[in-house]
Design goal:
This protein has 377 residues and is α/β, with parallel strands linked by helices. Helix content is 54%, strand content 12%. The chain folds into two domains: 222 residues, Spore Coat Polysaccharide Biosynthesis Protein SpsA, Chain A, CATH 3.90.550; 126 residues, no CATH class. It has ten helices and nine strands. The site of magnesium ion (MG) has 4 residues, from loops. Keywords: Glycosyltransferase, Membrane, Transferase, Transmembrane, Transmembrane helix. It holds the Pfam family GtrA_DPMS_TM. This is Glycosyltransferase 2-like domain-containing protein.
Length: 377
């Protein structure tokens, strides 16, 4: 198991050596894991890159990526990409250099991946997790980005702590499918964006409670400077973009449903004119709608995690049908009752009623949760 620790640094001369030493000490306790460290530095003027360069390679394998000052987001994108393509890591574990997240917690995160989760996030917001030493400004800052923007505006509900760097992510089938090259975050909005992108791969999330402390040495980057304001604006924009992408998906999903309904109505009507019993005609029509919905949702609504390959597609189609069988039965039943009470011409309102109030909510839940989301479980 190859684990790539990704540490972004800007002016961390007093922390970075101790951080690498600590990772080395921990890795000695887990000989079955190959620990590799990637430090992404934005040409820190305080000498951080020299300290990393001089780190003895016989202790811990360390890669230094140096680039101009661009911000935390760009540094992490570069680090993740390097971990996947160059290091060929199985798991990536990003962390800060300043010991706010205790590196000794990383085995807990990695173990969650070994247990079958795809993303394990160090969390301050679940039972047992905690923050020590935040002043009102830091707390306000966090509450706005984490609760108001990430949870409410963006609607990312896979985890409760969206803002931290410390997590473990499975590469195979999950992180490798995230389009890192398309991610343009300069600042800390990356943390929310990556969670959202991971959610689209169908990843299974979990949170591990940890203590978040004050930074050990060096200066905070939070405060009113031009990077901070730029990053806040970016965070707001990114939260709104995520929300829009999700509503766009909901809109497409709705349109697919309407087309399905038209198909179903035409098929049912034709079969009823050919003297088939209405409940049966509607059930056959429903099956036609199911096929049309499956194809259109696969290639359009959910195309970011489109199902590819004939056998996978066939399996999913069977699953999809199994999941939709409830919908077919509900409609048949409603149309039977409707036509029994009000006569044959009541087949259409009965069908519509069943679709709107029962089938649509039920199917959205099933499609999202089971069909386009089960790449890895
Ligand atoms: N490469 C790079 N790393 C950065 C940049 N900004 C922050 N970092 C690093 O990212 C990690 C987290 O940044 P911090 O400044 O600790 O942010 P924070 O934890 O929210 O704030 P503090 O509570 O003040 O520590 C640290 O290891 C920083 O050195 C940047 O622009 N480029
Ligand atoms: Mg910090």
């Amino acid at each position: 198991m190859k684990i790539a620790h990704i540490i972004p640094t800007f002016n961390e001369k007093d922390n970075i050596r101790a951080m690498l030493d600590e990772l080395y000490e921990i890795s000695k306790q887990y000989p079955k894991w190959e620990n590799i460290c990637i430090v992404v530095d934005d040409l820190s003027p305080d000498g951080t890159p020299d300290i990393v360069r001089k780190y003895p390679h016989d202790k811990l394998k360390v890669h230094l990526l140096s680039k101009k000052k661009e911000g935390l987001g760009r540094a992490l994108i570069l680090g993740y990409d390097f971990a996947i393509r160059k290091v060929k890591a199985d798991i990536v574990v990003p962390n800060d250099a300043d010991f706010q997240w205790d590196p000794r917690d990383f085995p807990k995160l990695v173990r969650k991946i070994e247990e079958g989760f795809d993303v394990a996030v160090a969390s301050r917001h679940i039972k047992g997790g905690r923050v020590s030493g935040w002043n009102w400004f830091r707390k306000l800052n966090h509450d706005i980005s984490n609760t108001l923007l990430a949870w409410v505006v963006a609607g990312v509900h896979e985890v409760k702590d969206h803002a931290g760097n410390f997590k473990a992510i499975r590469v195979k089938g999950i992180l490798e499918r995230v389009p890192l090259a398309k991610m343009k975050n300069a600042g800390f909005s990356f943390q929310l964006h990556i969670l959202y992108e991971l959610s689209k791969t169908g990843a299974k999330f979990t949170e591990v409670p940890v203590l978040f402390r004050e930074r050990r040495y060096g200066q905070s980057k939070i405060g009113f400077n031009r990077y901070y304001l730029r990053d806040i604006v970016e965070y707001i924009k990114s939260s709104i973009a995520i929300r829009l992408e999700r509503s766009n998906r909901f809109f497409k999903y709705g349109l697919v449903g309407i087309i399905g309904l038209v198909i179903q109505t035409i098929v049912s009507k034709l079969l009823i004119s050919a003297n088939l019993m209405p409940p049966l005609a509607v059930s056959v029509g429903a099956e036609c709608a199911i096929i049309s919905n499956f194809l259109m949702n696969n290639f359009w609504t959910f195309k970011t995690h489109v199902i590819s390959g004939v056998s996978e597609m066939f399996t999913k189609f069977i699953q999809f049908n199994a999941a939709s069988i409830g919908a077919v039965i509900i409609q048949g039943g409603f149309v039977w009752a409707g036509t029994f009470i009000f006569g044959k011409s009541a087949w259409f309102p009965s069908m519509l009623f069943a679709i709107i109030f029962l089938v649509i909510p039920y199917s959205y839940f099933v499609y999202n949760r089971f069909i386009w989301k089960t790449h890895h479980s």
